[in-house]
């Protein structure tokens, strides 16, 4: 390794790209997909049902409905709650577009709020200030797998009749005060997109303990039909299925569930490996005095918040751009040139053209999110990376930040 950055013509830390968030499938998933293909039933059927049941058990929810994405789940959640024009939904500005876009889809207004500077999750004080008589729901996002302060949010929401719809896209296995995310709020939505901790290529799941909500989710997720295809084809008696509401086409397929069943069984092992990699990064980056800040992570029994668990979907670092001769995007470009698949999460939604122009938001409206938006870099932390891969990540970060240090 030379000290000249690869972006300036030097030798990269690695000869091959270490991808960001590559999914991790093995023979179990492959065999299950082949079995499904040979079974003749590839769309929603017995494997989706099995995955739903095992997922509900893992998170401790009564019901889980398999979907084709987390975005579908977030949208359906607002639909089954009856949220629409004239209503407001509070969303953290530090999130993926889908969290707020679905609010627009039902004709309501997303009201953006800042995140806490330390946890990077929605700030309950900012939520309280944003509540109006029109507020119908709050959508907390467990950023990177870090649990939100759900007790504070429920304390604000419950007496006012406001619903909590969790965006748990990053948070399969996240625990908050001893409870697993998915068993805490009326509706919780998970993502199984390619780079998520549990991947079905594309997919999602919504969980609830409420039988009436589950019934509505089932009807709305498949065209608004009174009975789904699996039930229609596997009864002895012919019966018509009727459109009872104008529903959507959001169902999960058995091909996706074939991946999900096995990915779910490996989650605890995956999380343990993510924790090992994170501990290695923590220690290595503590040497970069002042150049890098990592959000403190709750661990079981630590940080005065027993039984909280961050499942480390992301390993975010905030680089101290004021001490560098480069901005965050230039640092990411330099890391990519070193063959480290670095990414970033997120540009705050108030700075995205649609939300900025529609509602007149300014970058400084949400200072904590702005700080993240200008400084955050997400490093590879998928469970299959080796110690040598993790060492390369550390070497590349140190090489790049040292070269750019003022
Ligand atoms: C916070 C958050 N919410 C929602 C989504 C949407 O998930 P999906 O791609 O499964 O619709 C994502 C996807 O990356 C996300 O990061």
Q: How would you sum up the major sheet? A: 7 strands, mixed
Q: What is the H-and-E element order?
A: HHEHEHEHEHEEEEEHHHHEEHHHEH
> How are strands sequenced across the largest beta sheet?
1-9-8-5-4-2-3
Low-confidence parts lasting 5 or more residues at pLDDT below 50?
300-304
DSSP helix fraction: 25-40%
Instruction: Please give the domain count.
Output: 2
The CATH class assignment of the largest domain is Alpha Beta
Strand content: 5-15%
* Mean pLDDT score: 94
Ligand types:
pyridoxal-5'-phosphate
The count of strands amounts to 12
Give me some keywords for this one:
Aspartate Aminotransferase, domain 2; 14 helices; seven-stranded mixed β-sheet; 406 residues; 12% strand; single chain; Aspartate Aminotransferase, domain 1; binds pyridoxal-5'-phosphate; 37% helix; alpha/beta
Descriptive overview:
The chain is of the alpha/beta class and 406 residues long. Helices cover 37% and strands 12% of the residues. It has a 7-stranded mixed sheet, with helices on both faces. Strands 10-11-12 form a 3-stranded antiparallel sheet. A two-stranded antiparallel sheet has the order 6-7. Helix 2 (46-59) runs parallel beside helix 9. The two termini are 22 Å apart. Residues 69-71, 95-96, 98-99, 141, 167, 169-170, 191, 193, 204 line the site of pyridoxal-5'-phosphate.
């Amino acid at each position: 390794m030379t000290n000249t950055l690869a972006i300036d013509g030097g030798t990269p830390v690695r000869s091959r790209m270490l991808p960001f968030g590559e999914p991790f499938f093995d023979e179990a998933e492959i065999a299950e997909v082949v079995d499904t293909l040979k079974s003749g039933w590839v769309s929603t059927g017995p494997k989706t049902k099995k995955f739903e049941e095992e997922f509900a058990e893992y998170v401790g929810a009564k019901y889980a409905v398999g979907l084709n994405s987390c975005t579908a789940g977030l949208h359906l959640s607002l639909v089954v709650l009856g949220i629409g024009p004239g209503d407001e939904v509070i969303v953290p500005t530090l999130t993926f577009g889908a969290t707020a876009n679905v609010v627009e889809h039902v004709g309501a207004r997303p009201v953006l709020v800042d995140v806490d500077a330390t946890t990077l999750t929605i700030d309950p004080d900012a939520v309280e200030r944003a509540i109006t008589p029109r507020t119908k729901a709050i959508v907390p996002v467990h950023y990177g797998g870090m649990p939100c302060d759900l007790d504070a949010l429920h304390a604000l929401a419950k007496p006012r009749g406001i619903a909590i719809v969790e965006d748990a896209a990053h948070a399969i296995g996240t625990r908050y005060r001893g409870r697993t995310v998915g068993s805490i709020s009326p509706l919780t939505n998970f993502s199984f997109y390619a780079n998520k901790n549990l991947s079905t290529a594309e997919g999602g799941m919504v969980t609830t303990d409420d039988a009436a909500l589950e019934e509505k989710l089932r009807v709305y997720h498949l065209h608004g039909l009174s009975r789904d295809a699996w039930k229609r084809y596997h009864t002895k008696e012919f019966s018509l299925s009727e459109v009872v509401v104008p529903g959507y086409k959001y169902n999960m397929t058995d091909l996706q569930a074939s991946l999900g069943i096995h990915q779910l069984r490996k989650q605890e092992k995956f999380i343990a490996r993510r924790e090992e990699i994170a501990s290695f990064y923590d220690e290595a980056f503590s040497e970069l005095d002042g150049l890098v800040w990592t959000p403190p992570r709750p661990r079981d029994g630590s940080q005065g918040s027993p039984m909280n668990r961050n499942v480390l979907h992301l390993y975010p670092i905030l680089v101290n751009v004021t001490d560098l001769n480069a901005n965050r995007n230039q640092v990411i470009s330099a890391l990519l040139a070193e063959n480290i698949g670095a990414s970033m999460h997120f540009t705050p939604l108030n700075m995205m053209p649609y939300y900025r122009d529609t509602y007149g938001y300014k970058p400084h409206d949400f200072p904590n999110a702005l700080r993240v938006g200008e400084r955050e870099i997400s490093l590879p932390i998928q469970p299959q990376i080796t110690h040598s891969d993790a060492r390369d990540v550390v070497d590349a970060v140190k090489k790049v930040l040292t070269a750019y240090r003022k």
